[in-house]
Known about the structure:
Layout: E1 9-14, H1 16-20, H2 29-43, E2 48-53, H3 71-94, E3 100-104, E4 113-114, H4 117-125, E5 129-133, H5 143-153, E6 158-163, E7 168-169, E8 181-182, E9 184-186, H6 187-192, H7 200-209, E10 212-217, H8 223-226, E11 235-238
Helix pairs in contact: 2-3, 5-7
Amino acid sequence: MDDIPQYKRVVLKLSGEALKGENAFGISEKTISSIANQIKSVHDLGIQIAIVAGGGNFFRGGRGDNMGIDRASADYMGMLATIINGIALQDTLERTGLTTRLISALEIKSIAEPFIRRRVIRHLEKNRVVIFSAGTGSPFFSTDTAAALRAIEIKADILLKATMVDGVFSHDPNKNSDAVRFDTISYSEVLAKELKVLDSTAVSLCKENGLNIKIFNINKENNIYNSVINKEIGTLISKGG
């Protein structure tokens, strides 16, 4: 039986760390190629897909304090890192045969289009893969929040967050062997328990707008594809939990 997609339009949030693979820094060619092939497999199901990439494989705004850099300035540096990742994703995706559009929340005309909601929706309707970069364009907001905001603005069916763990846990699974993974959990529980798998502002935005979130492990084979068909992977964050 053919796999049946569960959604028509999705936003995929990729961390910068996911792109570096086993490297200590930067972008792993093997990893980004694998991610691009998975995205193509999702697109081939007829799903409209937009991507938000973090920049932590190059620079994270929160690191600025250790360097004596003003937080706002550090956040803009982090936004530029997401643009680097966006360009790399665009090139890699187009080598799989996909048509893409790189969108930047910061004006950078020679590389990317500005974010115009109706234009982005039209790109998706024309089966182009959209890559959002530069976060929200404002400091003090994470790329998680940018992903939630963009997903709500383009009326995505779900926000998919690819992480380095198998979903939402009761405690940090890397520090506590007794941590329990939730199959489903409510927005309110995530916020009340201060579970750090997603930025709290992003969770609040999704709660207020009824946008479900799927958290899953990017390191497991075909999990981007599995997240959009009827596969019980990761954790679903929703109103009811």
